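for the recovery benchmark. C-alpha cells below, seq after
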C-alpha cells in the first residue's frame, strides 16, 4: 500500500460512518459527527488591541453609512468577480487575516447586471454630483432579471 493510500485509509478514523463517505453530503457528516458545546464562554479571550483598533476604524464608516443612508463608496470601474480586486486591508500592519471584498473598507464591489445595480439606483439621489457614477452600465429589465432585484 502506498503512503498516500495509507493516509487515506486512516484519515477518517474517529468519525462516525455515514453517507458522507461515498458522496458529497456535508449535512450527513455534520449530523453524525457534531458534538454540541455545553460549557460557558469562560474559554474566550477578549479582543486584542489590534482588533479593537481595526473595529473602531470600520465603525467610523458604518456610522457614516447610517447617517447618510448610503454606502461609503463603491467601485465604479471594475465589474466584480471572485478575482477582480486585490486583497484589501483596513490597516495592513495590524491585520492577521486579509480579504476585504475590495481594496478599501466598506467600498462595495458591483456586479453590473445583478442586484448591485438595483442598490445603486436606490441611492442615485445621494450620488448626483459624483462624476465617477456608473454611466454606461444599465440594469437589465427583462422578466428573468426582475426576480434578482427582490
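predicted aa per position
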Amino acid at each position: 500500500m502506498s503512503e498516500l493510500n495509507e493516509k487515506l485509509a486512516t484519515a477518517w478514523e474517529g468519525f462516525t460512518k455515514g453517507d458522507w463517505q461515498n458522496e458529497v453530503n456535508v449535512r450527513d457528516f455534520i449530523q453524525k459527527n457534531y458534538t454540541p458545546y455545553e460549557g460557558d464562554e469562560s474559554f474566550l479571550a477578549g479582543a486584542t488591541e489590534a482588533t479593537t483598533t481595526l473595529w473602531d476604524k470600520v465603525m467610523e464608516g458604518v456610522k457614516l453609512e447610517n447617517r447618510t443612508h448610503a454606502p461609503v463608496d463603491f467601485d465604479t470601474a471594475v465589474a466584480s468577480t471572485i478575482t477582480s480586486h486585490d486583497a484589501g486591508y483596513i490597516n495592513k500592519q495590524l491585520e492577521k487575516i486579509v480579504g476585504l471584498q475590495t481594496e478599501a473598507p466598506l467600498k462595495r464591489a458591483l456586479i453590473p447586471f445583478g442586484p448591485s445595480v438595483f442598490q445603486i439606483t436606490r441611492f442615485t439621489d445621494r450620488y448626483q454630483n459624483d462624476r465617477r457614477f456608473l454611466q454606461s452600465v444599465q440594469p437589465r429589465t427583462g422578466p428573468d432579471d426582475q426576480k434578482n432585484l427582490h
